[in-house]
TrEMBL record:
Family statement drawn from the similarity comment of this UniProt entry: Belongs to the binding-protein-dependent transport system permease family.
Membrane topology category: Multi-pass membrane protein
Example GO biological process: alkanesulfonate transmembrane transport
Pfam families named in the record: BPD_transp_1
GO cellular component, one term: plasma membrane
Compartments, record wording: Cell membrane
Name recorded for this polypeptide: ABC transporter permease
Length: 277
């Protein structure tokens, strides 16, 4: 007498219901974050309205007055022209800062003589605020776009350099010795080991430099600028349009938020190098 072999039942594919159950936590988390975001905005508007009611329109524009001011500026094209002018200057100056700062930081981080020569200048100039060079920038580069872009480049490049140096000097020495023992040249080591190790630091430096660019754009546009958010804020202040001042400030914050989110999306392919955004 033989015992019949019992075969295990084949695993059944997960049903749509179970898959939906697995998705519920993610959907719930997204809804929760969205709800909290809306609640935060509403609370902020309520506090803003209370402050505006207390101090009056001469000092603080209310949300409705700010909205009306934005509508008026948008209707005559002033707001869009200001957004476009400031965005263009910020992007060009910031991009130049990253393009120059990242390679220079890599060289300073791995080549001692380059670091010893340039380090005193980096440490000296990075503590001087860009607004101190506004007058010189206008004298040297004129009242056109160049002076504004140079100031934004100045405020961006040092942040990228410092962060890139940090990434370059923190490269795993074991990997460096292994590559050297296998016959890799210095340029190959810099390109294949040091650069991938420094990429997270470069991305961090680029994000911080973007923030600095927005901090600089107002001071860069206050002097000898006909358009731009900084010029809009300064002109509105001179004419007593507090609502337009609030519009310029809020648009600057929203634009910075948008720029940072776009940058985070663009660097997602670099996650394999350890970038976390």
């Amino acid at each position: 007498m033989t015992l019949a072999e019992t075969k295990p039942a084949p695993a059944r594919p997960a049903s749509d219901k179970s898959r939906r159950r697995g998705q519920k936590p993610n959907m719930t988390g997204s809804l929760r974050r969205g709800g909290l975001f809306i609640v935060s905005i509403v609370l902020g508007l309520v506090v803003w309205q209370l402050v505006a009611s207390h101090f009056g329109p001469a000092l603080v524009a209310s949300p409705s007055e700010t909205w009306q001011g934005a509508a008026d500026l948008w209707a005559d094209g002033t707001l869009w022209q200001s957004i476009w002018a400031s965005s263009r200057r910020i992007f060009i100056g910031w991009a130049l800062g990253v393009v120059v700062g990242a390679p220079l930081g890599l060289l300073m981080g791995r080549i001692t003589i380059v670091r010893e020569i340039l380090d005193p200048y980096i440490e000296f100039f990075r503590f001087i605020p860009p607004i101190a060079f506004v007058t010189l920038a206008i004298i040297w580069f004129g009242i056109g776009e160049s002076s504004k872009i140079v100031l934004i480049f100045y405020t961006s490049v040092f942040v990228v350099i410092i962060n890139t140096i940090s990434g370059a000097v923190s490269t795993d020495e074991t990997k460096l010795r292994a590559a050297a023992s296998l016959g890799a040249s210095k340029s190959q080591i810099l390109r294949t080991i040091v650069l991938p190790s420094a990429i997270p630091h470069i991305v961090t430096g680029a994000r911080l430099a973007m923030g600095n660019s927005f901090l600089t754009i107002v001071s860069a546009e206050i002097v000898a600028a006909q358009e731009g958010l900084g010029a809009l804020i300064w002109t509105s202040r001179n004419y007593g349009h507090i609502d337009w001042v609030f519009v310029g400030i809020i648009v600057l914050g929203a634009l910075g938020f948008l720029f940072d989110r776009v940058l985070r999306v663009c660097v997602r392919p670099l996650r394999r190098y350890g970038v976390k955004v």
